[in-house]
Amino acid sequence: MTPVIALVGRPNVGKSTLFNCLTRTRDALVADWPGLTRDRKYGEGKLGEQPYIVVDTGGVSGYEEGLDSEMAEQSYAAIQEADFVIFLVDARDGVTASDHSLANHLRQAGKPMQLVVNKVDGLNEDTVLNDFYELGLGDPFPLAASHNRGVTSLITDVLDGFPDAEPVDTEALYGQGIRLAIVGRPNVGKSTLVNRMLGEERVVVYDHPGTTMDSIAIPFTRDEINYTLIDTAGIRRRKSVREAVEKFSIIKTLQAIQSANVVILVLDARDGVVEQDLHMLHHVLKSGRSVVMAVNKWDGMSEEQKDEVRRGLNRRLDFMGWADLHFISALHGTNVGHLFKSAQRAYEAATSQWSTHFLTELMQGIVQEHQPPMVNGRRIKLRYAHLGGRNPPVIVVHGNQVDKLPGSYKRYMENTFREVLELRGTPVRLEFRSGD
Ligand code: GDP
Ligand code: GDP
């Protein structure tokens, strides 16, 4: 599972600045679902091929002095759900009372952690660092987050401690079954759907060496196809159905998306598509995983209501034309079988292999149909194409001046590749490389 790194510390020490460096993204998932504590931000980053999740505890209070109780609660919750804690302090402020109080908590929590002294820019590092030994948390690490100094070596050090979290060799996993993640907001019906899927007569859930009671990966077979269900809802434990003990968790959702081949995104017909659904979908798309959409609770809706939901879906999901969408009732089992078919199709599309010869011929056909535009009197030349990755398929196009290709031409190419290669259910990535 992807390691989770929490950033804790007083307000204004530079947590958000570091968060942005580590995630290089403006679209962090913010935990503002009903029933969840606010003001924890979740983002994803990668060091080389190694993905990680960063949780920022935000500046809850604006208090400069002292951790107020809400702030402390945020930090404690973040520490608890993290695999590693980065404790930030401010070089310019020296050690404060609230640094001491957080340090005490961290010592008791016993989580792997690193003390990081931020804002060392323009200061004498050695002198500054010396002050912070009194926190009793080992060697402090110097950082200047807003100058992006020390960030890469910090995250490299942190991830070095996770030998088990080496990137999954996805190539080796192909053929071992389709990894399905069922994700969605709280109460859309994920648990009901998981139980419905696993409870089907044609589904055989089997014991798997290494599967523990707490394992969240449930292997099963349906119509001679192997699947592994990655359970984000925390409800189904092998042979028994247990009370939902864990609340909805963004971390589990992000981890499940990352370790899946195909994501089934569950929507609630009664709500239509809401902002949080789009947020989650955005994360799935960024991860490159295949997608099947399930509009749940389709039972008991009047024709007018159904029409209205369909109109809303067409409007808000018009960019998802390449993914299957099913109207289902997890409660009654209606159309649940279609989800398996779509997942299988999406998996096949996402993991197909095409030879360089085949992709190059296809690319030449695309170019013949519509020539790329002239740039400074020279025509952009596309030479050959090869497959650079699977799940999602990455098509690498080689040529010259490819950085000048207009977006509209890239979209034309993508759409044609998608159509000819029958890439239903999977995102596709086109990469362009210039070689002059
Ligand atoms: P947070 O409240 O802990 O999330 O802190 P922010 O990331 O919002 O940073 C608080 C202030 O410190 C901002 O004005 C940042 O620009 C500044 N800051 C962050 N990192 C550094 C740094 O490395 N050096 C200096 N000089 N200022 C920094
Ligand atoms: P989760 O939080 O996403 O796991 O959602 P649950 O599976 O716990 O379902 C939330 C509520 O929606 C429960 O009361 C379910 O009985 C109800 N529910 C789930 N699926 C359906 C469905 O297909 N139709 C209807 N009418 N209710 C459903």
From TrEMBL:
Its BP terms in the Gene Ontology are: ribosome biogenesis
Q: Name one Pfam family in it.
A: MMR_HSR1
Q: Please state which protein family the record places this protein in.
A: Belongs to the TRAFAC class TrmE-Era-EngA-EngB-Septin-like GTPase superfamily. EngA (Der) GTPase family.
Record keyword Oxidoreductase present: no
Q: Which GO terms describe its molecular function?
A: GTP binding; ribosome binding
Which PANTHER family does the record match to this protein?
GTPASE DER (PTHR43834)
Recorded hits in Gene3D superfamilies, A to Z, give: 3.30.300.20, P-loop containing nucleotide triphosphate hydrolases
| Subunit record text | Associates with the 50S ribosomal subunit.
The gene that this protein is the product of is der
Which source organism? Natronospirillum operosum
Indicate which residues the UniProt annotation says bind GTP 2.
184-191, 231-235, 296-299
Give UniProt keywords alphabetically. Answer: GTP-binding, Nucleotide-binding, Repeat, Ribosome biogenesis
Binding of GTP 1, residues: 9-16, 56-60, 118-121
Occurrences of domain EngA-type G (ranges): 3-166, 178-351
Q: What is this protein called?
A: GTPase Der
Q: Give a yes or no for keyword GTP-binding in this entry.
A: yes
